[in-house]
């Protein structure tokens, strides 16, 4: 608008008097020329306003008439410099804000990652503690089972040894019983074939009775063999109450009942 006012003032300063003093004669001609110039300037002004409303400021300067290019070009160059400077400042401000925003987003993302890592770390520590406790319980249970298996194996070995010993005792007792039965048979045969069997027979019978009598009650015949000493020294009734052998006083672990032998059966 300042440029337009300047142009308007320059167009209004037309001379009414010539330098030769013939101003009155050319007044009408100058007025006609000035009126034409005013009309042209008015039309130009309207066109300039229309162009200013349609195009940016950089394009407005190129439509000015060549007769007024010098002041407008100076003004436009200063305006362009200011615009460029402002654009540079705006671009610098935008780049600075972008950098700040990038750093802020990076810091926020880092903080979020740290928060997530802390939460996962706490959860992982809890899970690890639970797994450690489970491993400890499983290890303790495994040790208990190994100890139980070891004790069971020891018990099995003991029972195996006891079974072997018992089996050997049974075999030995069977042999002893067979030997005793053979001796009794021989003794009875000798007693029957002897001529003087009165006194000797009674003595032998007394000895046999003493050998076969129960060493606990001294009334019944012995029919129970004590283990592990293998003494035939108790009757069936006394065997229930005896905890040790009546002959050698060894602790009774088991007992075996044998059949009785008499003369009638032989």
Automatic annotation (TrEMBL):
Domain RING-type intervals: 214-249
Keywords assigned: Coiled coil, Metal-binding, Zinc, Zinc-finger
The keyword Zinc appears for this protein: yes
One Pfam family it belongs to: zf-C3HC4_3
Coiled-coil intervals, chain numbering: 128-183
Record's keyword annotation contains Cytoplasm: no
Span of the signal peptide: none
One GO molecular-function entry: ubiquitin-protein transferase activity
InterPro entries referenced in this protein's UniProt entry, alphabetically: DEATH-like_dom_sf, Znf_RING
PROSITE patterns in UniProt: ZF_RING_2 (PS50089)
Gene3D superfamilies, A to Z: Death Domain, Fas (1.10.533.10), Inhibitor Of Apoptosis Protein (2mihbC-IAP-1), Chain A (1.10.1170.10)
Protein name: RING-type domain-containing protein
Originating species: Deinandra increscens subsp. villosa
């Amino acid at each position: 608008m300042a440029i337009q006012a300047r142009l308007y003032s320059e167009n209004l300063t037309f001379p009414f008097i010539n330098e030769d003093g013939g101003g009155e004669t050319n007044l009408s001609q100058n007025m006609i020329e000035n009126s034409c110039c005013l009309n042209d300037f008015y039309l130009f002004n309207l066109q300039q306003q229309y162009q200013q409303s349609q195009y940016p400021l950089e394009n407005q300067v190129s439509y000015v008439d060549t007769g007024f290019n010098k002041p407008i070009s100076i003004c436009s160059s200063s305006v362009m410099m200011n615009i460029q400077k402002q654009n540079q400042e705006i671009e610098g401000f935008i780049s600075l804000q972008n950098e700040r925003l990038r750093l802020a987003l990076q810091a926020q993302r880092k903080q979020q990652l740290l928060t997530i890592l802390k939460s996962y770390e706490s959860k992982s520590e809890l899970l690890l503690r639970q797994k450690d406790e489970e491993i400890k319980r499983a290890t303790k249970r495994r040790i208990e089972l190994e100890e139980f298996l070891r004790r069971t194996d020891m018990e099995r070995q003991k029972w195996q040894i006891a079974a072997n010993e018992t089996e050997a005792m049974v075999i030995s007792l069977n042999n002893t019983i067979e030997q005793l039965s053979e001796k009794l048979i021989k003794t009875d045969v000798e007693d029957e074939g002897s001529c003087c069997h009165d006194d000797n027979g009674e003595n032998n019978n007394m000895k046999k009775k003493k050998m076969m009598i129960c060493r606990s009650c001294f009334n019944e015949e012995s029919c129970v063999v004590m283990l592990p000493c293998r003494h035939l020294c108790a009757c069936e009734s006394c065997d229930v109450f005896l905890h040790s052998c009546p002959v050698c006083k060894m602790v009774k672990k088991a007992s075996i009942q044998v059949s009785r032998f008499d003369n009638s059966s032989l």
